[in-house]
Amino acid sequence: MDNNFAISDQQVLTEVTAFLTQGTTNQKKQLYKFLRDQPRYVPLDSLLSEKELPLKLKLIEELHGRLGEDFSTSEEPFHFSNIQIAALSLMSIETLQDLRQDATSIMSVSVPHYQLSLLVNGNPPPCKDIFVSRAVNETWLLRDDIVCPLTGLVEAEPYYIAPSHLTKGQMNIAAFTDSTFLSQLMGDVWVQISRIMAIDSIGAFEKSWNILYLHPIRGLYWSQCLFGLKYLEMVTNSDGSTVVQIQFHRMPKNKVMSRQRVKPPYDSAIDAMLQIAVVTDEESHFGHYLKSGTSFGVTLNSKEEALKMKAALELQWLAVRLAAMSGITKGWGWERE
């Protein structure tokens, strides 16, 4: 193709078609890799399944009614807090149905607060906490080339996807694997993470599959749960390497108070939790604005590593949504934006 950019869509189509017909196999592979590596927009799903939400709210209200009969007093009726409502709304329908038999794990408002602190890199959020072997660091460099996949900027640093402190020692691992609340909140993701911990044990999360290079500003925002990274899909190449597709999703900024008690019905409480984030002028001016739905790919050496990254991303996706929806992130320094 020539360097004339003032051409019609039909001309572009004609030239691309000619290239695909005449180009060598190697040239086509290079083009496919280039296109696959470029950020692209993928339509957004809601933070909560719109199809499942009505039934979930119905089950939560039924749970509230049953618990209210046992724990309400004339002076103080029983009500869930915002963080409890957020956690319950993120659980599966099957789990909510099971809670009608035993809801002791979510009775205390302090339980979600404590358990959430295990799942995020914030509170207060450090930019990063990484010291790794030279071999693991070289794996990152070969994979990511120290370029932030969100911004394309080279001033990138490594950040854990799932917090590395979860596998710093056996007590940390047990705090996760023995948690009834986390197993109910996370479902199959809890099973997958627990399996990784059982097999790889101490230091399991200090591996290249649990790390992304991000620009420091993006890393700070991520550690504050101001955006989340959602796993989309994976594609295995002929050489055995696997590409994990990830979607950027800006989180709500709301005025919700996490410990504030909420009366049913809960539709208005959920609406308040899902208020749309506002992009600041400063973000746009300095080129850090990203549209929710932007996606990118990360190539790992094997499908086994890709499955581990998928589990870490899904853990992070649950934790970020819970922190943002419940209002926890307000205390983590929005003014830094």
Structure notes:
The chain has 337 residues and is α+β, with helices and mostly antiparallel strands. The protein has one domain (56-336). The chain has helices at 9-22, 25-37, 53-71, 82-90, 93-99, 110-119, 134-144, 170-177, 180-186, 188-200, 216-223, 267-273, 281-285, 303-325, and strands spanning 40-41, 80-81, 157-160, 211-214, 227-236, 242-250, 261-262, 294-300. The strands form 3 sheets. It has a 4-stranded antiparallel beta sheet, covered by helices on one side. A hairpin with a 5-residue loop joins strand 5 (227-236) and strand 6 (242-250).
Name the features.
two-stranded antiparallel sheet; disordered N terminus; globular; four-stranded antiparallel β-sheet; disordered C terminus; 337 residues; 8 strands; alpha+beta; 46% helix
The general outline is globular
Q: Provide the β-strand percentage band.
A: 5-15%
Integer count of domains: 1
Question: What is the number of strand segments?
Answer: 8
Number of helices: 14
Output mean pLDDT. Answer: 80
Low-confidence runs: 1-5, 122-135, 333-337
What's the N-to-C terminus distance? Answer: 42 Å
Rg over C-alpha atoms, rounded to the nearest angstrom: 22 Å
Structural class: alpha+beta
The proportion of residues forming helix, as a percent range, comes to 40-55%
Report the major sheet: 4 strands, antiparallel
In short:
The protein has 337 residues and is an alpha+beta fold.
What is the element layout, followed by pairings?
Layout (H helix, E strand, L loop, with lengths): L8 H14 L2 H13 L2 E2 L11 H19 L8 E2 H9 L2 H7 L10 H10 L14 H11 L12 E4 L9 H8 L2 H7 L1 H13 L10 E4 L1 H8 L3 E10 L5 E9 L10 E2 L4 H7 L7 H5 L8 E7 L2 H23 L12
Antiparallel strand pairs: 1-8, 2-7, 3-4, 5-6, 6-8
